[in-house]
Design goal:
The chain has 3 helices and 12 strands, in the order E-E-E-H-E-H-E-E-E-E-E-E-E-H-E. It is mainly beta and about 180 residues long. It has one domain: YwqG-like (Hypothetical protein YwqG fold), CATH 2.30.320. The strands form 2 sheets. A 10-stranded antiparallel sheet has the order 6-5-4-2-8-1-9-10-11-12. It is globular, with a radius of gyration of 15 Å. The relative contact order is 0.24.
Length: about 180
């Protein structure tokens, strides 16, 4: 597992870095070609070059690019839309999360720092082995400094992918599990 520490973004910072919420820096064509739906809100973007050195077991086959996590509210709960982009994104999409006020403050950006940590099932982190699956992202809203999204539920959000899908960089079947 690679640990994640977050801090509320303030002052001058690079919007094209790893972060939770706020405005994504992504391919603009994703809005036009409906890769990202009108009901999707931006959850986070992970810049691979910022954490790849901590991926000692080479769980993630790509060395650069971004993994994006979007969510939409459905009558069955939150539905994930996870995308991979192999290049540096070119467009900052301001006010992307505007209009999702019922979800709390998801317009404030939280920058991400990564650190090496022992394999654990607790806390916020990425690339956690879980049997025949990998937890791409584990989000614990009760960790220090985390955005308050999902805090009232006290649930940890786990974005899971089958190992063989991850090796093909096919994120179309990522599941979201709240536990």
């Amino acid at each position: 597992m690679i640990g994640i520490k977050v801090e509320k973004a303030h002052g001058e910072y690079d919007p094209g870095t790893s972060k939770f919420f706020g405005s994504p820096t992504m391919p603009e064509e994703w809005l036009a070609d409906e890769t990202i739906g009108d009901d999707d809100f931006f959850f986070c973007q992970l810049k691979l070059s910022e954490f790849k050195a901590f991926d000692k077991d080479n769980i993630l086959p790509a060395k650069s690019g971004f993994i994006y996590f979007f969510l939409s509210e459905t009558e069955n709960g939150l539905k994930p839309n996870v995308q991979y982009f192999e290049k540096e994104p070119e467009t900052l999409i301001d006010d992307f999360n505007a209009g999702f006020d019922s979800l709390g403050d998801i317009e404030t950006e939280f920058s991400i720092d990564y650190f090496e940590t022992k394999e654990t099932t607790d806390g916020t982190g990425i690339l956690v082995s879980d049997k025949d699956e990998i937890i791409l992202l584990q989000y614990d809203p009760l960790d220090d400094g985390m955005p308050e999204f999902l805090a009232e539920t006290e649930n940890v959000a786990c974005f899971k992918i089958k190992k063989e899908d991850l090796q093909k960089l096919d994120f179309s079947k990522v599941k979201l599990e709240l536990r």
